[in-house]
């Protein structure tokens, strides 16, 4: 997120509250990103659009998601087994 903020500063956006106003995102959302939370795609899109950047470049600048594998691939959760349907006798 530091690199995102640096890009924002180069466009005259100095603080997270300023970035919130310019993107239409809430300050708490941006503070969560600054603290390492994973952004949603619409959030990344708004930031990228404001900064004139590609979504991919913003995603690469946001901190790694906790639980990511060593190769950078996201950790895959196992889905719970499907429940059996009860049949009446």
Order of helices and strands: HHHHH
Kindly report how far apart the N and C termini lie.
59 Å
Given this structure, which CATH class of the domain at 2-61 is correct? Mainly Alpha
Q: Mean pLDDT, as a whole number?
A: 80
Q: What would the CATH topology of the domain at 2-61 be?
A: 434 Repressor (Amino-terminal Domain)
Strand content: under 5%
Largest sheet: none
* Count of runs of 4 or more consecutive helical residues: 5
Low-confidence stretches: 68-75
Secondary-structure content class:
mainly alpha
Radius of gyration: 18 Å
Approximately how much helix is present in the residues? 40-55%
The dominant shape is elongated
Would you identify the CATH H-level superfamily of the domain at 2-61? lambda repressor-like DNA-binding domains
* Secondary structure: number of strands: 0
CATH architecture descriptor text of the domain at 2-61? Orthogonal Bundle
Region (Disordered): 66-89
Biased composition (Basic residues): 75-89
Pfam families: HTH_26
Protein name: Helix-turn-helix transcriptional regulator
